[in-house]
Amino acid sequence: MNEHYLTELPAGSHWSLLMRRGTALRLTDIEGGANVGMLFYNPENTLERYNAPDTLKCQHTFRLTTGHCLYSDMGRIFCGIEADGFGWHDTVCGTANAQQVARQFGELNYQQARNERHQNGYDSFLVELAKYGLGKRDMAACVNFFAHVGSDDNGNLRLEQQGKAGASVTLRFAMDTLVILHTCPHPLSTATDYPRHPVRLTLDYQRAPLPAICLERPENQRGLRNNTLYYLAEQPQGV
Predict the structure, then answer these.
(1) Which is nearest to 108 in space by CA: 97, 119, 121?
(2) Does the pTM exceed 0.70?
């Protein structure tokens, strides 16, 4: 049986999927310059969703990379970054809206340009969230994969680097997770033309636990214990 599923998303796309506990999702920036915005929810209780402040605070970091875990607002771990060929992913800047994209790249809708339209991350998230009965009130701070964001001495944020050709990042899931994503421009993008950089998604169905590198911090060990408690009453496989 094929244990992998591959698909390629062009820029300005959106998608959603359910990742099962133990499976992995690998994102690959094919050409360089890609951005992947992502949100996470508990499919059994969508009130539980990704919490960016807790994710950064408990791991004493501003960036996300290998060994970091992504937390829910219930103190559980959605997934850990198992491998990372880029080295810096943003979870502070949020996502661009229609007004920002129109101002920067010009307004170009589906009727005018079909799949070459200028889609924005905010509306892309809403389209996917609606498939699960969710909406604006369910939006949260997102992760922007392949986005290296820095700041100056006054705290002004800037996009230092957007993607790298061939770079990939692998997420190993520690609980069943509803993943909502888009491939629209980062809100701090300085591009003058709408970015058109595709992303490859590889789903690995072969299950494995979080790698040891994700559990080096005691905070992440405690987070994983919260996951264990959550699944304590789960029936064994085959029952």
Answers:
(1) 119
(2) yes
